[in-house]
Amino acid sequence: MPRETTTLAVFPRRLKQARLRSGLTQEQLGIQAGIDEFSASARVNQYEKGKHTPAIQTSQRLARALLVPTGFLYEEDDLIASLLAIAGRLSKEKKKTLLASAELIAQE
């Protein structure tokens, strides 16, 4: 399967996963991401159903509202996506520590 097709199928799943984990409704997420309040719920619903794919700027705003890195929304591998979500919540210093640890593990 071409990566583009797979990536398009991943985005709706990751978006919904992050939204549910955040406890936001589709409308709340849309509004926090800067989508007009009258269409916020419908647009987020369409993104989660895969009917429409947001522009990258919208994806970035959605990710910020969900407190996840934008890459999380596009990552196909569940383990890497989980690592991204965790890393996104860390302070800069803790991210550096995590990176150093990951580099040590990769050398083994």
Can you walk me through this structure?
There is one protein chain. The protein is mostly helical. Helix 2 packs across helix 3.
- Along the chain, the helix and strand elements come as HHHHHH
Number of strands: 0
Q: Report low-confidence residues grouped into runs of 5 or more.
A: 1-5
Largest sheet: none
Structural shape: elongated
Quaternary state reads: single chain
Organism: Paraburkholderia gardini
Protein name: HTH cro/C1-type domain-containing protein
Pfam families: HTH_3
InterPro entries: Cro/C1-type_HTH, Lambda_DNA-bd_dom_sf
Compose a concise summary of this entry.
69% of the residues lie in helices and 0% in strands.
How are the SSEs placed, and which strands pair?
Blueprint: H1 3-22, H2 26-32, H3 40-49, H4 56-66, H5 78-88, H6 92-107
Helix pairs in contact: 2-3
What descriptors fit this protein?
single chain, Lambda_DNA-bd_dom_sf, mainly alpha, 108 residues, HTH cro/C1-type domain-containing protein, Cro/C1-type_HTH, disordered N terminus
